[in-house]
């Protein structure tokens, strides 16, 4: 399952080898990847979108100017969703259009909008492959995209010719991708990462509590990305409605005090501690053992709150402090000033700041837009993207904090 957690956008263009892409989609899914197929109009003359829907569990996307599709995962979101774009088969025409920067169908448009790495498995008649125009396009694409070229293979061709131009076999394509990701894993391979996520619940009585709107999605996305990149991940989660990411050890907690207990056990000597949970600053001083009844004539009910342990501050001052400690600053105003202040005050290595006064990103949204501030005065602005994609970008930033490697 070495493609576990990868989101592969499989672009299929109009070559006879498109029939092999059905097997390719099946093998990619089997290796653990999520697969989203995008087909050119030409590809649909060779194989139907329905085949891929059945194999990948996601409807294949075929249209660019499609009102319904744009309301769901639009072409830009599709571009951001992918951790890798794989073109198989890539026709001579697709290579030429890519090289020219065309955006005349969904696949070429997504390619221009995506920052994901690209892998290309060309497939065409041997004379078409050998043609100077195609070879110039291959050269140009290498400069533009630095893609992983997979094949083409040599051998008998569907047209009766013999030579270089056959698409590599699906199993060989999957293996080439697996090798690529195995190499990339190294930055996080074997590292110990601890993530806190979600809200905490501070009991008032057995049926009532104080909490907040955190969904836990950012922390879960970070845990998932770190595990996918080879880290050993412990995820300490408040009450959320999210599935445990593959390969992650999850510890469920309720209150801030529980979370602090779990963090003290998991954090010592970790390589990275990410405090993405929205921990309640205060808890009810004396929660009641019994449900509090409404009292006739009593219009007010006063609760006394006392301060909770500051988890991120506590972790950053542990004797066996993690190598790097990352905090989040969800603010509604003066985001940058608070972020720098919190970074210094809590002895953090990085702080990820976002503006939660905006309703289109942040809490309870799939997307986020953040700025990361670092101990050495670094600053990285990471534009709006799905939290799952943002998580990879954040890990790339944190990986810079391990200079000894
Ligand atoms: C039967 C048949 C097989 C074809 N096979 C290939 C092929 O393997 N590779 C290729 O580059 N073009 C092939 N073509 C030509 C492409 O279909 C044509 O260039 C088309 O415009 C490609 O569009 P697309 O790249 O947008 O999918 C084939 C055409 C036909 C009629």
Write the layout of secondary structure elements.
Blueprint: E1 7-12, H1 20-30, E2 34-39, H2 49-56, H3 67-71, H4 75-81, E3 84-90, H5 92-99, H6 106-113, E4 118-122, H7 126-130, H8 132-145, E5 148-149, E6 153-156, E7 162-166, H9 170-184, E8 192-197, E9 202-205, E10 208-210, H10 217-228, E11 232-237, E12 248-252, H11 256-266, E13 272-275, E14 282-284, E15 305-307, H12 311-316, E16 324-331, H13 335-345, E17 350-355, E18 367-374, E19 379-386, H14 387-399
Parallel strand pairs: 1-2, 1-3, 3-4, 4-5, 8-11, 8-13, 11-12, 13-16, 16-17
Antiparallel strand pairs: 6-7, 9-10, 14-15, 17-18, 18-19
Helix pairs in contact: 1-2, 1-9, 4-6, 5-8, 10-14
The structure holds flavin mononucleotide (FMN).
The site of flavin mononucleotide has 15 residues, from helix 5.
